[in-house]
Amino acid sequence: MLGRGRAWKFGDDINTDYIIAGKYKLSITDIDELSKHAMEAIMPEFSAKVKKGDFIVAGRNFGCGSSREQAPLVLKHLGIAAIIAQSFARIFYRNAINIGLPVAECRDAADIRQGDMLEVDLQKGYVKNLTQGKIYKVKPLPSELWAILSEGGLVNYVKKYGKLPWQ
Amino acid sequence: MSKTISEKILSRASGRDVYAGDIIVASIDAAMMHDGMAQLVINAFKEMGGKNLWDAERVAVVIDHVAPSAYESFSKVHKMMREFAFKHNARFYEVGSGVCHQLMIESGLVFPGGLVVGSDSHTCTYGALGVFATGIGSTEMAAVFLSGKLWFKVPETIKVTVEGELQPMVFPKDIILKIVGTVKADGATYKAVEFGGSVIKSMNVEGRLTITNMAVEMGAKTGIIEPDSKTYAFLKALGHEEKRGFVSDEDADFCESLRFDVSDLEPQIACPHAVDNVKSVKEVEGKEINQVFIGSCTNGRLYDLRVAAEILRDRHVKKGVRVIVIPASRRVFLEALKEGLIKVFLDSGCVICNPGCGPCAGGHQGILAPGEICVSTSNRNFKARMGSSEAEIYLVSPATAAASAISGEITDPRRFLKEG
């Protein structure tokens, strides 16, 4: 179980420039500094107010745009426990898993409101909305990806097993 | 069983018959990383215990996003890249060589039928040459550097057929903007988009590269066009030996087929703050602008510069507007110089920057102030991408960019059509 935390609610097509703008990605290389600018253009208070264990909840196509891995990295660095969205852009989805940031597709994500208290268990495949007293199913992660995610990402996987998952 | 181009390439690269939906491990023909991601790639490579590249000849290291470096932080990244590239004998492209994607196209590393990955979402550009090319993240790039292999899900393919007769002042950029505006930002997620039809067939390779460049703006894993005599002639002119690629079987299984008749298509424009927020230029004409950018991996090739120069010739950019022209590579720059295009740009009041990404990704060379409006030939107009979150970016063809530069407001390039 990923525990309990508040939902930070975003809409559709949240692109990687919203998550971390190019002007910061292409000037700041320190992750502490970079993370302060996460979601700045669309939710300026986000990085200061987000707490460890909180969740991002979004609509369709979360993480569209560039292949920058800094996007999932800053969210992980700020303590986001998982991203729950109706759907993800493909490069972001792979990147998140490769750095050990849990991502889950949930058709009912739109039902979750800003600030709702959630309990998330990806292995059991549910999101419990404690505020609204509801429970939603999430799409199970393919086993190949779960293998990477459960080790905390691809680098940790290689460190542990001495090879890539597909070798 | 019949296959699409993508299924054929991924079958070759994985050494078995594969079809849409299959999860495969495939051998990579070439891999590229640029300075926007290099620090993460190199660190991950080291952390994974990387000692040698799987094949140094197939690895390209490019400095293009902040080139020359505008910050000490990035000077350190560039230093790290040079050390990495020289230590491992990778192909290294120094500051001023060009945009990574143009360099890959010119390099010979990219060939019809190949499987190529890059640490950049616009890696899909190479699909115009019949390549299966896709963007990946930095940790996966490190894994490719180690092993030369990567897992893929073989994508389904959407077939996009473009027919009709283009009107004057309507260009490949207008076509792809129209398609992105129709399919929308997530309409092709996880899928390959194969472009065909009479308009694509008669289009030059540079125009095709503009089309496939923007496939990712629909969420696609790649955009692809079957290689033909034009493709092979294009690569031959660059001095590369011929490698034959694949074409889709006639009865291949496409998950969706879309047809666009572009005979009545007008110049198109992607309005703030989404690439799929597409209108005809006519609808937003007259909006005052502050900056024009002509360049990028979408529209920084010789053909694009010719189109823009033709409009700017013997005219001057509007007072108060700065026009930044950036050839996509040193080769393009030299050719433009030889043709006299650079002189046209300078005479008309444009500024020429060194080949590279320019202001597109917000790194340098044209950062926008609050309230400013930029007309750009690049591929993304997200809020805050090119500077202030209170600035606006409009995406257009080089013709619309040049016409707008002269008027100082968003302008339909058909106003500059020559008489007769």
- Number of DSSP strands of chain A? 7
The level of helicity of chain B is 25-40%
The low-pLDDT segments of chain A are none
| Proportion in β-strands of chain B | 15-25%
Mean pLDDT across every amino acid position of chain B: 97
Biggest sheet details of chain B: 5 strands, parallel
What's the arrangement of strands in the largest beta sheet of chain B?
Answer: 4-3-2-5-6
C-alpha Rg of chain A (nearest Å): 15 Å
Number of domains of chain B: 2
Assigned CATH class of chain A:
Alpha Beta
Q: Which pair of chains forms the biggest interface, and how many residues does each contribute?
A: A-B, 46 and 56 residues
Q: Looking at this structure, what is the CATH superfamily of chain A?
A: Aconitase, domain 4
Strand order of the largest sheet of chain A: 4-3-2-1-5-6-7
Broad shape of chain A: globular
Description:
The complex is a heterodimer of chains A (167) and B (420). With 167 residues, chain A is an alpha/beta fold. Chain A has one domain: Aconitase, domain 4. Chain A contains eight helices and seven strands; from the N terminus they run βααααβαβαββββαα. Chain A has helices at 16-19, 22-25, 31-35, 46-49, 70-77, 90-98, 143-150, 154-161; strands at residues 3-9, 55-58, 82-85, 103-105, 117-121, 126-129, 134-137. A seven-stranded mixed β-sheet of chain A has the order 4-3-2-1-5-6-7. In chain A, strand 2, helix 5 (70-77) and strand 3 form a beta-alpha-beta unit. In chain A, 54% of the residues are buried. The model of chain A has no long low-confidence stretch (mean pLDDT 96). With 420 residues, chain B is α/β, with parallel strands linked by helices. Chain B folds into two domains: 5-260, 2-Layer Sandwich (Aconitase, domain 3), CATH 3.30.499; 269-416, Aconitase, domain 3 (2-Layer Sandwich). Helices cover 32% and strands 18% of the residues of chain B. Chain B contains 15 helices and 18 strands. Chain B has helices spanning 5-14, 38-47, 72-88, 100-107, 138-147, 172-183, 198-202, 205-213, 229-237, 281-284, 296-299, 302-312, 330-338, 341-347, 398-407; strands at 23-27, 30-34, 59-62, 91-93, 115-118, 132-135, 149-153, 157-163, 192-196, 222-225, 256-261, 268-270, 278-280, 291-294, 322-325, 351-352, 373-376, 392-395. In chain B, the strands form five sheets. Chain B has a five-stranded parallel β-sheet with strand order 4-3-2-5-6, sandwiched between helices. In chain B, strands 16-15-14-17-18 form a five-stranded parallel β-sheet. Chain B has a four-stranded parallel β-sheet with strand order 10-9-8-11. In chain B, helix 12 (302-312) crosses helix 14 and helix 12 (302-312) runs parallel beside helix 15. Chain B is globular and about 55 Å long. Chain B starts with a helix and ends in a 13-residue tail after the last helix. The model of chain B has no long low-confidence stretch (mean pLDDT 97). At the A-B interface, helix 2, helix 6 and helix 8 of A face helix 2, helix 3, helix 5 and strand 7 of B.
